[in-house]
Amino acid sequence: MFYGSIPALVTPFSGDCVDEDSLRDLVEWQIAEGSSALVPCGTTGEAPTLSNPEQYRVFEVTVQQARGRVPVIAGCGSNSTATCLEHLKAAKEAGADAALIVTGYYNKPSQAGLLAHFREVDAASELPIIVYNIPGRAIVDIKIETMAEISRLPNVVGVKDATGDLGRVTAQRLACGEQFCQLSGNDETALAFNAMGGVGCISVSANVAPRLCADFQEATREGRWDDALKLQDRLYPLHTALFTDTSPGPVKYALSRVRPGFPTALRLPLTEPSDASKQAVDKALEHAGLI
To answer: pTM of this prediction?
Structure first.
């Protein structure tokens, strides 16, 4: 159902408001450059700093601008199951095609709690669900056995796997079945992830280099591994530079370099990336041929 290069979109701000014009421009550019789907209001979209009305408006603007040309996977995760259900309802009303649901961060649910959460979400959802497993931020990790049970829920179609454990791709394919859609949550390991059976990446770097990321994913899908490796080497410094300070600060800075005028404002507690981070981004953009 989902594959290829899928940017986890940044949310542009103007003053205290979401900059809807810049968001529409970003969506249009991403589609023109070959992105396979779009994810508004993920971690890269600063969802924790958005009010519910703002988050739901970002859903609406993204869906309106995409106009059905690519799927929109709305970030609906929360560490409160009840809040997650509210987000799901809003995503459905906005016309989103699917929902990305992160594990219960901060309150550290058990495996039984994670399973109960996704069962509740699945029962209430009218959208396909992609599970988002990111223990580096959420602290909790969905174990293979738990993922296998979650994968059998009627609306669950796949996972964004940001564990960094490449062996998971094979283990989850064996446990969850060939039909279970596995998307990498890490740009830097997406080559190996796809070689082991993954079908794409929900990407940070695709915000900045959508065409290169789309070409990279297409090369892996077609089995052109030499071409994919060349693109990996071209993109790798960017993958790492975008995390030399707290994301999405370096991402918004990079976008302002490749698309002059793109707003770089962040919401507290996030702050402007350091000079060293900006220098690393500039060097990576030059290496990739983007500036």
So the answer is: 0.97
